[in-house]
TrEMBL record:
InterPro entries for this protein: Ankyrin_rpt, Ankyrin_rpt-contain_sf
Keywords: ANK repeat, Repeat
Annotated source species: Cylindrodendrum hubeiense
ANK repeat locations: 110-142, 143-175, 176-208, 209-241, 242-274, 275-307, 308-340, 341-373
Source taxon at top rank: Eukaryota
Name of the protein in question: Uncharacterized protein
Keyword Repeat included in the entry's annotation: yes
Record lineage: Eukaryota, Fungi, Dikarya, Ascomycota, Pezizomycotina
């Protein structure tokens, strides 16, 4: 084994780029990388350094016994083959694979095999070569993910087809019990979702938090993916936590196209969470005008109150969402509704200092002398907050 020398990170411009390919969905992996990248000086094997410095031609000129891919590991535990795959150096990759049968089973400190890395962006040709050399399509990294998870996240249809032909488990579960279908749905990869479903992916599988792939599609605003999942039997009324359905996640992100799709497929427009939230309350709170309009058109109750007496109008007023307030008022929102403490929308607007909202409420009949339980009218609310 050659002597490992120290290399100053500042002199290795390709190091940050190469490191980014290891950034992962899970924050704990990013934290591990940050702690490693935080060192001022890092040990990098000489052959790895040649690749990082784009001096692959020098490596190719070395005798084959000095190019052995197993002999050296860097601080991330990667072999020369891992690094070559990271950088997309196909000639080097081919040479290394021809030198030994060992490299395909080598794992780094994250439990990733060369095939895992290849599925992050290598060509179909390289992935086929790895599989032909004996790479295990179901090898798991430290988060219990097979290469198929990586390919699903990247959205590479040809690679996924190749992995499936080589025995990749479609319904494998990672550490949080998510399957590759979750990763594809979250990324909005319609073709991948279709391919996985065609290969019997479980459309309604729940992870440890109760999420299904439909939640991922709804949260990301991926209408085409959500439609595919629904067409294949995904439950529209699945709930997580305090009874939140996919509709709430689509609303929270302001994804009106997904909201429209879910409503068309039977999502409850006046459904309630465990704490009393309705879709309209959520949309008004976020200030999503298009979503509010959709919900109202589909029969949302404009004056439903949450536990402490707030209606959708209160939430829109608090956020200063003028266009939403106008919509709510046009659809019958009670401008003088009172919360449990006697607070009115006008008092709320005065307290927040939303001048345009105050004007709109007054134009729509808000009572200027209505009092809360402390006998306060709207004016003291503005005075105490220096508005």
């Amino acid at each position: 084994m050659q002597e490992v020398r120290l290399v100053d990170l500042s002199q290795s411009p390709h190091w940050p780029v190469e490191l980014q390919k290891y950034y992962d969905i899970h924050s704990e992996s990013i934290q591990r990388l940050n702690s490693i990248y935080g060192y001022e000086v890092m040990s990098i094997p000489p052959l790895h350094n040649l690749l990082l410095r784009t001096e692959a031609s020098i490596l190719l000129s070395l005798p084959s016994d000095q190019q052995h891919p197993v002999a050296q590991r860097d601080v991330l535990g990667r072999s020369l083959l891992h690094v070559a795959l990271d950088l997309g150096l196909e000639t080097i990759i081919t040479n290394l694979l021809n030198l030994s049968d060992e490299p395909t089973s080598i794992i780094d400190h994250f439990g990733r095999s060369p095939l895992h890395i290849a599925c992050c962006g290598a060509s179909h040709k390289i992935i086929k070569l790895l599989l032909d050399k004996g790479a295990d399509a179901n090898m798991l990294d430290m988060d219990i993910r097979s290469p198929l998870f990586y390919a699903a996240r990247q959205g590479n249809e040809a690679v996924i087809t190749l992995l499936c032909r080589n025995g990749a488990s479609i319904n494998a579960r990672d550490v949080s019990w998510q399957t590759p279908l979750f990763y594809a749905a979250r990324g909005g990869h319609e073709a991948i979702v279709k391919l996985l479903l065609k290969n019997s992916a479980n459309v309604d599988w729940k992870d440890l938090s109760g999420w299904t792939p439909l939640f991922c599609a709804a949260e990301g605003g991926h209408r085409a993916v959500a439609k595919l999942l629904l067409d294949n039997g995904a439950r529209i009324d699945s709930k997580i936590g305090p009874d939140w359905t996919p509709l709430f996640f689509a609303i929270r992100g302001g994804h009106d196209a997904v909201v429209k799709l879910l409503l068309k497929n039977g999502a409850g427009v006046n459904s309630k969470t465990g704490s009393g939230w309705t879709p309209l309350l959520c949309a008004a709170d976020r200030g999503h005008e298009a979503v509010v309009e959709l919900l109202l058109e589909n029969g949302a109750d404009v004056n439903t109150k949450i536990g402490y007496g707030w209606t959708s109008l209160f939430y829109a007023v608090e956020g200063g969402h003028v266009s939403v307030i106008k919509l709510l008022l046009e659809n019958g929102a009670d401008v003088n509704s009172k919360a449990g403490c006697g607070l009115t929308p006008l008092q709320c607007a005065m307290e927040r200092g939303h001048e345009a909202v105050v004007k709109l409420l007054l134009e729509n009949g808000a009572g200027v002398n209505l009092k809360d339980r402390l006998d306060w009218t709207p004016l003291p609310y503005a005075i105490t907050e220096d508005h």
